[in-house]
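Extended Data, panel c. Modelled sequence:
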Amino acid sequence: MFKRVIKKVFFFSFIVTMYSSYAQNSSRLKETQSPLYLNPSQPTEKRVADLMSRMTLEDKVYQMNQFVGLDHMKKGNPNDDKENNDAQGFYKTLSVNDVTAMCEEGKIGSFLHVLTAKEANYLQELALKSPLKIPVLIGIDAIHGNALVSGTTVYPSPIGLASTWNDDFLYSIGKQTAKEMRATGSHWTFTPNIDILRDPRWGRVGETLGEDPFMVGNMGAAMITWISARRFYGNSKSNCLCKTSYWWWRINQWTQCSSCRHLS
């Protein structure tokens, strides 16, 4: 009788131990499984919903945080790229190292003035180290060509382009600008300016396409069609022209960033 009791107790203890071990392993497996939003084969809507459910209010606020690129910051003091760099007056309390750390922590959503694929790749690698691995959005002022980058095609200012009255020409400019932007790692540009010119005293007249709503609408649409197209570089996605496309780009960009595909 005593032996039977001992056997039952031993058997019960064995079952409990095995169950506990299984539960722990299952928990660890769930922790190591990749989140749904990082799976490019899943529908965009599901990936967005999954990501948003994981983000805290702080995470969302940080996605609106924007800095200039690290190389641009270093120009503030070429001899000091580590500490106490005031970045030409941009961020007097932050050094290049501070901004680098913030990117790794997922506290930066976008960058400006990133002029090379090398730096763009580096910033994306930093972002992949963050808890949510959200890629950074890189924007640039490619108003009439990607003119901030040496060696790219530069076109006349928009008010000059408007004088051509040629929608097809604006379409081709958008196409070439988009290609040259993606070649350097940028996804987001701030053109065309489709404000209607009303007062010539306004300081940004040269960035508009003039005062005729019909012409401005047609020319603006022609540029947007190619700048925001998804028709080049194989699987590479296009530039985001406006903020409404922001999360569309972020979700689709994981297809590339999750495997650290570099631009060249």
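The two ends are 78 Å apart (CA to CA). This feature is highlighted in the accompanying rendering.
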